[in-house]
């Protein structure tokens, strides 16, 4: 689907195509995310330019959908199943081209810059993330704390690197190790905290923060639990050594059902508005969209655990609803500074 071809479609045709692409995303079809971004870009430009458009009233919703796909789905645009840091940087920078004041985009770009030891850019992105006053794509409390630590460490690394360069060039005398030790200790202390609290493991009994080594231990020694893992590479669910990959929407859907549903509190489609809605549906999600997504998720889970229904259906005021049966204990593992579409 080329942007040139999209530009020839009418606004109404683009909205019809949006619904088609959202259905394809539910079926895990490759490149769907990229196609949706291209569609929202063209649709946003068309409606914004045409002051007489009958769709002016959803202009901000179209922009929100565009930014949501760039910020939350950006790392998965190519495959829907695995992350790509290079693609993440491209999509996050594109999001900032539409709105420079997006905390989540600035935070993630800061984190990626920090990983690459590009500390000057990291400082700029983290400062923007922390100073933002926007009410959308806000940082979580954990992200704000991590951003402050990354910000301090980035500055300390720059001082450390500048010191080494000046010493090598003979422009200053080497500073005694004893005088530098507080600098090194601060960097190490922050790095140790970030490593030891890198992930959060949540179960029915509560949450705890853990290190990458702790995560491996959970996966190896708690295999009798259903483990939903949002790793740095992909989203997966496993049980007793068997594992299957999930798309972003499937991971979000399963996480929400595990953490927030029960037989007494089944979840209707309205809880998943940001996953399944299109730009012009007036807050309504087709029942078959919700049901089809649950059916595909059930199929994924059935490949791990046979003969057991993990997601049951119910009714809430005539609306179809679903809940996790709690037949198997679960653990949800994710980066402590990760944000979710469904909070």
TrEMBL record:
Keywords: TPR repeat. This is Uncharacterized protein. TPR repeats lie at residues 103-136. InterPro entries: TPR-like_helical_dom_sf, TPR_rpt, WH-like_DNA-bd_sf. Gene3D superfamilies: Tetratricopeptide repeat domain (1.25.40.10), Winged helix-like DNA-binding domain superfamily/Winged helix DNA-binding domain (1.10.10.10). The keyword Signal does not apply. It comes from the Bacteria.
């Amino acid at each position: 689907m080329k942007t040139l071809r999209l530009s020839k479609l009418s606004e109404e045709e683009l909205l019809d195509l949006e619904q088609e692409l959202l259905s394809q995303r539910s079926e895990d079809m490759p490149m769907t995310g990229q196609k949706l971004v291209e569609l929202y870009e063209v649709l946003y430009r068309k409606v914004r330019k045409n002051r007489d458009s009958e769709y002016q009233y959803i202009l901000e919703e179209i922009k929100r959908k565009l930014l949501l796909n760039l910020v939350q789905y950006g790392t998965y645009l190519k495959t829907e199943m695995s992350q790509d840091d290079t693609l993440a940087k491209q999509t996050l920078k594109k999001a900032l081209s539409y709105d420079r004041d997006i905390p989540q985009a600035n935070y993630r770009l800061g984190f990626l810059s920090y990983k690459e030891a590009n500390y000057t850019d990291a400082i700029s992105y983290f400062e923007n993330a922390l100073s933002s006053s926007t009410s959308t794509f806000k940082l979580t409390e954990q992200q704000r704390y991590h951003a402050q630590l990354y910000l301090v460490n980035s500055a300390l690394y720059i001082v450390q690197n500048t010191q080494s360069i000046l010493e090598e060039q003979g422009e200053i005398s080497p500073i005694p190790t004893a005088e530098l030790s507080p600098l090194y200790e601060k960097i190490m202390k922050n790095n140790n905290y970030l490593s030891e609290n890198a992930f959060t493991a949540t179960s029915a009994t509560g949450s705890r923060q853990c290190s990458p080594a702790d995560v491996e231990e959970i996966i190896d020694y708690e295999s009798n639990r259903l483990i939903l893992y949002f790793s740095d590479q992909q989203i997966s669910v496993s049980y007793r050594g068997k594992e299957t990959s999930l798309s972003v929407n499937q991971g979000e859907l399963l996480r929400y059902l595990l953490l927030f549903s029960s037989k007494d509190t089944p979840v209707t489609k309205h809880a998943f508005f940001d996953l399944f809605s299109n730009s012009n549906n007036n807050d309504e999600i087709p029942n078959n969209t919700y049901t089809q997504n649950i059916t595909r998720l059930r199929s994924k889970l059935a490949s791990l655990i046979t003969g057991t229904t993990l997601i049951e259906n119910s009714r809430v005021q005539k609306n179809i609803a679903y809940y996790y049966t709690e037949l198997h204990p679960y653990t949800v593992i994710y980066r402590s500074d990760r944000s979710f579409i469904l909070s």
